[in-house]
Each structure stands twice: as structure tokens, then as C-alpha cells.
Amino acid sequence: MLSRTAQIRLVSSHPEVYDPCDDSFALVDALLADRANLLEHRPSICMEVGCGSGYVITSLALMLGKGNSGCYFIATDINPHAVGVTHKTMEAHGCHADLVTTDIASGLEKRLAGSVDVMVVNPPYVPTPEYEVGQFGIASAWAGGENGRSVIDKILPVADNLLSDKGWLYLVTLTANNPSEICLQMMKKGYASRIVLQRSTEEESLHIIKLWRNLDTQLEVC
Amino acid sequence: MRLLTHNMLSSNIKGVTNGFPLLIEVEKVVEKQVDFNEDFLRNMFPKIEWKALVEASRTMGYTELPENAESSMLDSDEFLRKFHHALIELHLEEGALVCPETGRKFPVNKGIPNMLLHEDEV
């Protein structure tokens, strides 16, 4: 039976790249739970920001049907090693995504504006001192600055720019990131949201948020 | 890197106003066969900057694309196949993307472009 998610034994690794962990599995579980909706959604462009080992983008490509040449998969990471590992992981599963080594979506923002139908992000969400944010290498996978929000707060406006009218964003957060405040902020930009999965491990409490444009009721900001 | 991605990339250097399209320096081109999907091509067509695609495909050694294109041409199977080939099946494996304004080169290795900027370019 064709696996609907990436297989750990086929996921490539590198000392400077974040291996799939509880947060990666939670995001993929959330996507799997939403699979029927995703298929019905018929996305043309799916994008992952921060692809790491490639576990999530590979799983997304598999669950939408890897033979499905009806969708363009693109993934970015600020860590060149991560992009290399994602490439190997995708190949090992017979999938393809176009990969770009860049900071969030820098270089893609102008042309991809309003075009991404599904965006998935497992950001560096761990609260750390500010100086740890944006360092190259494996720390870029978790260092999130104050309340773990530094990179998330950079990503949200980029997502708002890139998402199509029907675009969906799946975002991994910790309780410490204040997910309800994120939802409120996005609501003011006209997004509806739902916590689609919650999972508590020994170390952290994860909330996977799904966001989409609420085209019926755009709130006016006074 | 497919030409679809090239069509979506522009120079991200601070102060650059004319950053699209990036010029292509070819070292190695690979052709990878992919199943044809008409719906996908129809969805993508309005987003594509046609001239940039034609120029890029010529740089990669493919000269079959017409100079101009309009959506009525999507009804032609022949056109669709050429569009598909240029957009999806041609890969720049090794080479560089060049900012048209500053000449700055963004390397492409193993099909992956590196758009990371130096501190003074951000």
C-alpha cells in the first residue's frame, strides 16, 4: 500500500539539519486529517517555508498523490544543508519539489503574490534570546526570540502576501507563542482560523493553526 | 530548477527596481520527463511572464516556444506540449541566476538556487 506520508527510514539527514520530531509529525497528522478537504481544494501551488529534512513537504506531496502532476510544490529553507537534505528526501520517495535556499520567501514574493493555495510552516518557535535568531545552521530551526514569535511574526505578512484568495495556511505554534493572539491579529487582516490539532508532549504543548481568508466578512480596521 | 520557478524568482537585493527576470548562466541542463497535466498548465498560464519564459527556454537550448502567447492557444495540444516541456521538463542543474540590474550572481547547484543575500544587500 502506498504510504501517505514520508517514511522515516527514507528521510535524509545531516548534522546541521533538524530531524523530524513531534512538531513535524503533528503538522503531518493535521494535514492527513484534512486530506479529503485538501484534495477537494485542488491546490495548484503548495509551498513549505522552512522545509528542514523535507519530511513535511514530502508527506504533503505523497498525500496529494505523488503522481499528481496537477500541483506545483515549492519549498524554502534558510539553511542550505536543509535544502540539500530535503532534495534527497524527496528523491528517495519519488517526489519532486522546486527548492530555493532563501530567507522565508525572499526573491519569490513579487511573482508568487496571491498565488499559493496551500502553505505549510513549522517555524522556529522556541523562545530564546533575540541574538540566537537568524543564525545560520541548525539553531535557525528552533530559535524564535521573545515568546518564540520573532520568525513567526516575519512569516505572517509574507504568507498574507503569497496566499491566494482560496489559500490555506497551516502553522505550528507553541502555547508560549500565544496562538489565540496570532489568530486575532490575522482576523484583523480578514482571516478565519481554527486550531486543527493540539498535542502535548513532555516538553511542549503544540497547536496547529489553520488560517484562511474569510471572504464573506472582511473586518474593517478603524 | 524548473523554468516555472525561474519565472517566479526576482532579484531580492535592496534598492533593485528592475529585478525580473533573472538572466540565466547555463552550466548544465537536464531534461526530466513529467506527465502532462492540462488543468495545471491552464491554471499556471495567466501567472507566467511569457517573454521571460521564452528567453529562458532559449538560453537552455529549447527554441520551440512561440514569441507571443495568448490563452486561446491553450486549446492547441501542440502548444500545450511545448509549454509543458519548457515550463516543467527543463531543469537548470548547474549554473547561476544573474540580477539584471546589478549583475550579482545567485548560484544554482544540484538544481537549487541560493538566494541568500550578504548583509550589505539586505
Automatic annotation (TrEMBL), chain A:
Coiled-coil regions listed in the entry: none
GO terms, biological process: methylation
Keyword annotations from UniProtKB, A to Z: Methyltransferase, Nucleus, S-adenosyl-L-methionine, Transferase
One cellular component term from this protein's GO annotations in UniProt: eRF1 methyltransferase complex
Gene3D superfamilies: Vaccinia Virus protein VP39
Recorded GO MF terms: nucleic acid binding; protein methyltransferase activity; S-adenosylmethionine-dependent methyltransferase activity
Keyword Disulfide bond: no
Ranges where the Methyltransferase small domain occurs: 45-128
Localization: Nucleus
Family classification: Belongs to the eukaryotic/archaeal PrmC-related family.
Stated name of the protein: HemK methyltransferase family member 2
Organism per entry: Olea europaea subsp. europaea
UniProtKB/TrEMBL annotation, chain B:
InterPro entries: Trm112 (IPR039127), Trm112-like (IPR005651)
Coiled coil region boundaries: none
Gene Ontology biological process terms from the UniProt entry: rRNA (guanine-N7)-methylation; tRNA methylation
SUPFAM superfamilies: Trm112p-like
Pfam hit, one: Trm112p
Domain of life: Eukaryota
Entry GO MF terms: protein heterodimerization activity
Residues spanning the membrane: none
Family: Belongs to the TRM112 family.
Subunit structure: Interacts with TRM9.
Protein's UniProt name: Multifunctional methyltransferase subunit TRM112-like protein
